[in-house]
Write a structure and sequence with these properties.
Low-confidence stretches: none
Structural class: mainly beta
Helix content: under 10%
Distance between the termini: 37 Å
Order of helices and strands: EEEEEEEEEEE
Radius of gyration: 14 Å
Length: about 120
């Protein structure tokens, strides 16, 4: 399974960005799709999660970020509004997927996309 992210960039505080992540390869099903981020000198943190029936967000992004998925495209998105300088980080797409009906579920990671918010 390969994940390709896009949509990062430089934006002013208060602005918006939309991240996209598309999964390809041998995919039977995707259980959970996540967005993580890692700022310089900090640990990677979970930003948002989406399953078939629910979403969850880190407290720091609630009300500003929205995660969504397109199952037909094996894609996940992160709409980021009202961006703050503290949102600056490399954002990573992560999925938990089965390659076949009979295989275990594994975590797969994208290469990361840089989001920089200028104040």
């Amino acid at each position: 399974v390969q994940l390709v992210e896009s949509g990062g960039g430089l934006v002013q505080a208060g602005g918006s960005l939309r991240l996209s992540c598309a999964a390809s390869g041998s995919i039977f099903s995707i259980n959970v799709m996540n967005w993580y981020r890692q700022a310089p000198g900090k640990q990677r943190e979970l930003v948002a999660t989406i399953t078939s029936g629910s979403t969850n967000y880190a407290d720091s992004v609630k009300g500003r970020f929205t995660i969504s998925r397109d199952n037909a495209k094996n894609a996940v998105y992160l709409q980021m509004n009202s961006l703050k300088s503290e949102d600056t980080a490399v954002y990573y797409c992560n999925v938990v997927a089965h390659e076949t009906r009979y295989s275990d579920a594994f975590h797969y990671w994208g290469q990361g996309t840089q989001v920089t918010v200028s104040s």
